[in-house]
UniProtKB/TrEMBL annotation:
<feature type="domain" description="TonB C-terminal">
    <location>
        <begin position="43"/>
        <end position="104"/>
    </location>
</feature>
<keyword id="KW-0732">Signal</keyword>
<feature type="coiled-coil region">
    <location>
        <begin position="135"/>
        <end position="162"/>
    </location>
</feature>
<dbReference type="Pfam" id="PF03544">
    <property type="entry name" value="TonB_C"/>
</dbReference>
<protein>
    <submittedName>
        <fullName>Energy transducer TonB</fullName>
    </submittedName>
</protein>
<keyword id="KW-0175">Coiled coil</keyword>
<feature type="signal peptide">
    <location>
        <begin position="1"/>
        <end position="21"/>
    </location>
</feature>
<dbReference type="InterPro" id="IPR037682">
    <property type="entry name" value="TonB_C"/>
</dbReference>
Length: 341
């Protein structure tokens, strides 16, 4: 019998340190308050998953209203991620001395640790196929590469390292065949869960993601990408390098006009686009189940039938708009007004 240990890692979803208002004290974890789950299995599994959760911390420091806003790998781990987050305890956030509800975001990796072998690296079978697909893409044999990607996903993609490497590989294929919808999905997955990647690939992911975020006017993520480059220990990224990149993005951001995004909603699956303008309008063809402004210092619920305009002030910290629909549909998110990042 092999012991199967479920290891849940708690990591920040974002790297950019927020600039808090002087009278705001953010919520802080005071007790992880979870039990390690141990099971036995006659057949050890390499299947793993990663989930990005958005949730609220109320005035008493209790977690509620947990939503999975990004996922990769085995979807069965979504429930475990939500159970884990629900057991976190916080020291409440305060504004002007009063406790307030706030929003937080966290990444939970569900990893299977085994006594008989290591599961923290890509398998030889995965790596061999990965190299072959990369070569096919370099040779512009895109149809054959797509077929091999499908085989790689079905036969060898199991643990978190392989899951994120596959997302990166898919993003490269999508880029060269100009499938921008798929590219957006996969470069976002690779960027959000980049901590599972080797440093050199992390660097490539971040640089690709940075250019993509700028092109689609996702400025919050662009700033995150710049910060992420400085967090790779084995990569030289000087303060001068950072200041140069920041100056370029700042110039583009300050000159940017209105931002219009088309967001595809899946049934009962929440999304959390991050906001970089002071006024937000949301248009949907069918009724929405949930619309909620989630900031690190504010939470606002909206009546989905009477949404007019969503306003963000300069004192609001890292805001996203959580959107959820019972039916699949495409919604339009328009951002205008002042730049405040």
């Amino acid at each position: 019998m092999k012991k199967l240990v479920l290891a849940l890692s708690l990591t920040s979803a974002f790297t950019q340190p927020p600039a808090f208002a002087d009278d705001f004290v953010p919520a802080e974890v005071i007790n992880k308050n979870y039990d390690q789950l141990t099971n036995t299995s006659p057949r050890a599994s390499r299947l793993e998953g990663i989930n990005l959760s958005s949730y609220l911390v109320d005035e008493n420091g209790q977690v509620s209203d947990i939503e999975i806003v990004a996922t990769a790998g085995q979807k069965k781990y979504q429930r475990e991620a939500m159970d884990y987050v629900s057991k976190l305890n916080y020291k409440s956030a305060k504004l002007n001395g009063e406790t307030i509800p706030v929003a937080k975001t966290i990444t939970v990796s569900s990893q299977n640790l085994h006594t008989g072998f290591s599961n923290d690296k890509a398998s030889r079978g995965f790596f061999n196929d990965y190299e072959q697909v990369s070569k096919l893409i370099d040779e512009k044999k895109y149809d054959e590469a797509k077929s091999r990607i499908d085989e790689l996903e079905n036969e060898h993609t199991k643990n978190t390292v392989e899951i994120v490497l596959l997302a990166w590989l898919k993003s490269q294929h999508s880029y060269f065949v100009q499938d921008w919808k798929s590219f957006d999905q996969h470069i976002n997955e690779a960027f959000l869960f980049r901590g599972n990647l080797p440093d050199q690939i992390q660097k490539r992911v971040i640089k690709n993601a940075l250019q993509w975020f700028i092109s689609k006017q996702d400025y919050v993520r662009a700033y995150d990408a710049i910060d992420a480059l400085g967090n790779i220990e084995s990569i030289t990224f000087t303060q001068q390098n950072k200041e140069q990149l920041l100056a370029q993005v700042n110039d583009i951001y300050k000159r940017s006009g209105d931002i219009k995004q088309q967001i595809e909603l899946l049934p009962k699956q929440a999304v959390l686009p991050l906001l970089s303008k002071s006024e937000v309008a949301l248009e949907a063809q069918m009724p929405l189940n949930k619309v909620q402004l989630r900031c690190e210092n504010k939470v606002v619920n909206y009546d989905t039938s009477t949404i007019d305009k969503i306003v963000i002030s300069q004192n609001d910290v890292r805001c996203g708009l959580l959107i959820k629909s019972a039916q699949a549909q495409t919604v339009t998110l328009k951002q205008s007004g002042d730049s405040f990042l």
